[in-house]
Amino acid sequence: MTPRIDLHTHTTASDGRLTPEALIVLAQERQLGVIAITDHDTTDGIPIAQQAAGESPVVIPGIELSAEDDSGDVHVLGYFIDCDNQAFQQTLVDFRNARESRAKKIVDNLATLGLPLSWERVLHFADGGTIGRPHIAEAMIEAGYVSERQEAFERYLYNGAPAYVPRKRMSVEESIALIHSAGGAAVIAHPGLIPNYEAIIERVIPAGLDGVEVVHPKNPPNVQAHLRKIAAKYNLIMTGGSDFHHPEADGSITLGTVTPPDGCLDALRARAKRYA
């Protein structure tokens, strides 16, 4: 029997709201056999989750790199990465330090706009994980400036919004190369959120792109159908996952509700071996 699989999850090591241990408990409750932890720009939650999981679920070491293209954010997932690769980890440290400096500048901009925040509260919401705009949004909600994350982003934090600060840029090609350097397979995340995803996918195939996330909550059926054609044309691995960050406001749980295409896991494992 094929185990239930979710290849896109987040923990408090980045912008998820469950600790790695709590995510494992939830995965066990939902009878998942395999999960990939793909936190933003960090692998810190993976060894904790693997220890908590024991034999089940199997925890695939992954990451979601925050790449950027001229048209905006283009995230790249990495699977079966070597978390002990020191050069890889140093690059992540440098990248996270740049994210923290950026976050501080955003907080300064908010203060200029008449919306002062305590940096300590932003750190509180990051809870030791990679600091990002979602944590600033949470501090804004607590301060009463906005009612929800989406409002914070739309009014203040999105690209071009009043408090926005550009981040240290990592291109899609650089992200693919970094994942390969750590022995992982590189996959474009949630293309349905990228306006010109087909052009970007075709551009980075020579850089060694391994796959594309076909099944994702933000990929509508027509986009999924189109991505399947692109994957077949360029021999890309088709992946999928729930992009789970936390239980929804109504108490519903998306973890394990989005299943990758058949054969995906074996294909990723085989492709990653090319870079080991």
Task: List the SSEs and their pairings.
Elements: E1 5-9, H1 20-29, E2 34-37, H2 45-53, E3 58-65, E4 68-69, E5 72-73, E6 76-79, H3 86-112, H4 119-126, H5 133-143, H6 149-157, H7 172-181, E7 185-188, H8 197-204, E8 211-215, H9 221-234, E9 237-240, H10 264-272
Parallel strand pairs: 1-2, 2-3, 7-8, 8-9
Antiparallel strand pairs: 3-6, 4-5, 6-7
Helix pairs in contact: 1-2, 4-5, 5-6
Strand order of the largest sheet: 1-2-3-6-7-8-9
Number of strands: 9
Overall tally of domains: 2
Helix count equals 10
As for the CATH topology of the largest domain, it is: TIM Barrel
Average per-residue pLDDT, rounded, comes to 94
- What best-fitting shape do the alpha-carbon axes yield? globular
Instruction: Describe the largest sheet.
Output: 7 strands, mixed
Q: Provide the helix percentage.
A: 40-55%
Q: What do you see in this structure?
A:
By secondary structure, the chain is an alpha/beta fold. The chain has two domains: 5-90 and 172-272, TIM Barrel (Alpha-Beta Barrel), CATH 3.20.20; 93-157, DNA polymerase, domain 1. It is built from ten helices and nine strands. The chain has helices at 20-29, 45-53, 86-112, 119-126, 133-143, 149-157, 172-181, 197-204, 221-234, 264-272, and strands at residues 5-9, 34-37, 58-65, 68-69, 72-73, 76-79, 185-188, 211-215, 237-240. The chain has a seven-stranded mixed sheet with strand order 1-2-3-6-7-8-9. The chain has a two-stranded antiparallel ribbon with strand order 4-5.
